[in-house]
Amino acid sequence: MTDMPNSRDRDLRRRAEAVIPGGMYGHQSVGLLPEDYPQYFASGEGAHLTDVDGRRYLDLMCAYGPNLFGYANPQIDAAYVRQLEKGDALTGPGPAMVELAEAFVAMVTHADWAMFCKNGTDATSMAMVTARAHTKRKTLVLAKGAYHGAAPWCTPRPTGTTAEDKANQVHCVYNDIASLEAAVAKAGDDIAAIFAAPFRHDAFIDQAAPDPAYARRARELADQTGALLVVDDVRGGLRVARDCSWSKLGVQPDLSTWGKCIANGHPISALLGNDKCRAAAASIYVTGSFWYAGAAMAASLETLKLVRETDYLERIEALGDKLRDGLAERAQAAGFGFRQTGPVTMPLFLFDDDRDLRKGFCWSSAMLERGVYVHPWHNMFLCAAMTEADIDAALDAAEGAFKVLKREAPTLGPVEKLAFLAG
């Protein structure tokens, strides 16, 4: 695609190399995707994206999660624009901040208060300092490979950080109770918090639902040690439940972090907490020039209204079941071991015997060519703007992509840009 004559994507990449370090950075860089994936997009509408060269895709990435009710949702965007016209970033917040905090407290069982910020990393970092302020301790227990953001204390790429940035951390294996107990014991009297993802959604490996016994034990250990239990719902929030994700297991955290889709793509994230840690949250210093801007809060209020008043979650779960069943049938017919893990609303696709992702890259590129944007190693997202016709189109594309893979498989070479996986 980027080798097409007169490709605008190719031209933008060339220009970016001169003015942006590395040409592109962060999780939306296509540096670790197949070569034909576009880097730049012109627009989004509903469940579809259009790239700068005019190609339209059914988007199963949903902007890496923020798209819950459809790109350019008229109801949510109208609320954003109404507030924008009145004022956005002002010398102080508007009524929407209080109204949004009230809406979250009413919706999320464990929450007695809410604080707002801009990115998921802001929210998880606020949870960390709140836990340390509450306990007067330093050590965090985290699952190996879990992603909690891009600050120096949690970034998965250590370049430019120091060992001290990740000091006072002990790691366990997700869903392994004995490992969790050992990590808590190692933290000893210095444990401040146990961090947990709503399910295991590490990159490059199969996702896994949380074991209810593991979740209950995390709660018990937090209570026994005086630590705070933190559920990082930045990725899974509102796609697993209308409440905190672990509420489905009967486990309530002390703190939960939210972001991505809580304003359907408008920039806002949140830290929610219970009364136990209210005083600690009031004592920390966290702020940002744009954290109190009202337009995103108005969009979030409208998003939460749709969460409360529509069957959006049941619909995307039904679409996810349809997609999962249809892909399994087509993969089996083509003779491929094709693993689909995670919630049906946030699927991950991986092939058996594909450690270096050569099959995944080939299949994903074939899907892209057929107008469906999938990711070869990151979990994806379904949104409420998708329809049964969209899922049918995705399944038709998948059938064609499996045929391409069957034809090309004998000649596929290793994916050199992912050589680190072999190690």
TrEMBL record:
It comes from the Bacteria. Its EC number is 5.4.3.8. It is an enzyme of class 5 (isomerase). Pfam families: Aminotran_3. Coiled coil: none annotated. SUPFAM superfamilies: PLP-dependent transferases (SSF53383). Keywords: Isomerase, Pyridoxal phosphate. Its cofactor is pyridoxal 5'-phosphate. PROSITE patterns: AA_TRANSFER_CLASS_3 (PS00600). GO terms for molecular function: glutamate-1-semialdehyde 2,1-aminomutase activity. The keyword Transmembrane does not apply. Belongs to the class-III pyridoxal-phosphate-dependent aminotransferase family. This is Glutamate-1-semialdehyde 2,1-aminomutase. It comes from Caulobacter ginsengisoli.
